[in-house]
């Protein structure tokens, strides 16, 4: 039986993908083959040595110390794009919340609960609306920082709303570029986008170059009265800088999925409890995709949508399957193949791919690998993980 340890609320339809005759899915498994989680933080947590893979049902992997796991051969997966539509729709809501006095006007109406006279109530309603007027999105400029799965959807939606759109993404993939409307203008750098945007929405991962990207310097480059939407990660925005920008009027509004003590106490941001991906559809998409990827890896050694290993897949042949991970340097693959040849083990099929400093190989061989063979392969210099699948 293979064991999957789950964390967080994983959609049942995803968990049901694990065949019950071969998989035990359990939140408290002590020797799991894999972990399946959403935002649960793995930093500072001891990982059982049995773990071969981790699937993040979602996009961001900053809750997982990926670089610590790679040398142990632990493959980390995410589910690119599976919750992008859910986030896009909450950005749309945020654009509207940031442009009209919707929440304040609702509070105003709620404050009229004691007014029992219909004529007086009507007067107060009509008097109140002066205070909560807004402006329209059409014709305004939206700056989209990060044009991946989510950013591209938002950029295209904003074009459909009649907005002008500027995008900034120095690492834009060809695949993401194909998704993007040709009407999206490219900014050379973040400050140039900020200087021209009435609304700015962040859709980048929390990584070294992006952490704290919205700081005092960025706000001073920004257009006065800008609306900032951050449904990506709290770490992208420096709390003190955003509070100063709200107080000075540099920011007309700040909407964020990442409440912090300081922002809540300050009271001027519109804060959601990390709701971006919390739709039935997104939760199901992510859970199904994560489960399928784990099953294919645990059953066949195939790797799809990993954030630390190359994409490697091979149809099963009639033989037995070995997989190994190694440092991406010359001669390791040759040494392993020579070792198999010396033992008269015939290779039926093979695929080898590399990514940055590591390589991963799937080899189908004619005879069942013995424990001694696995041991020999593991002892090849620069091979750091071997598995019979
Ligand atoms: N609030 C929520 O519930 C959710 C939040 N997220 C957050 O949104 C982030 C983006 O998600 P996806 O669009 O699905 O990821 P993605 O990987 O498809 O797109 C990220 C984009 O950011 C770009 N990028 C990287 N560094 C950059 C930089 N310094 N400046 C500008 N662009 C940069 C990349 O080139 C890529 O195109 C996730 O990493 C996660 O942190 C994602 C899903 C749900
Ligand atoms: O996919 C992401 O990056 C998210 O932030 C969604 O997080 P969640 O799955 O709702 O805990």
Rough shape? elongated
Radius of gyration over C-alpha positions, nearest whole angstrom: 26 Å
Structural class of the helices, strands and pairings?
alpha/beta
- What's the count of strands? 16
CATH class of the largest domain: Alpha Beta
Q: Mean of residue pLDDT? A: 97
What's the N-to-C terminus distance? 13 Å
| Count of the separate structural domains | 3
Number of helices: 14
- Classify the helix fraction into a percent range: 25-40%
- The CATH superfamily of the largest domain appears as NAD(P)-binding Rossmann-like Domain
Question: Order of strands in the sheet with the most strands?
Answer: 8-7-6-9-10-11-12
The arrangement of helices and strands along the chain is EHEEEHEHHHEHEHEHEHEHEHEHEHEEHE
Keywords: NAD, Oxidoreductase
Catalytic activity: (R)-2-hydroxyglutarate + NAD(+) = 2-oxoglutarate + NADH + H(+); (2R)-3-phosphoglycerate + NAD(+) = 3-phosphooxypyruvate + NADH + H(+)
EC number: 1.1.1.399, 1.1.1.95
InterPro entries: ACT-like_dom_sf, ACT_dom, D-isomer_2_OHA_DH_cat_dom, D-isomer_DH_CS, D-isomer_DH_CS1, D-isomer_DH_NAD-bd, NAD(P)-bd_dom_sf
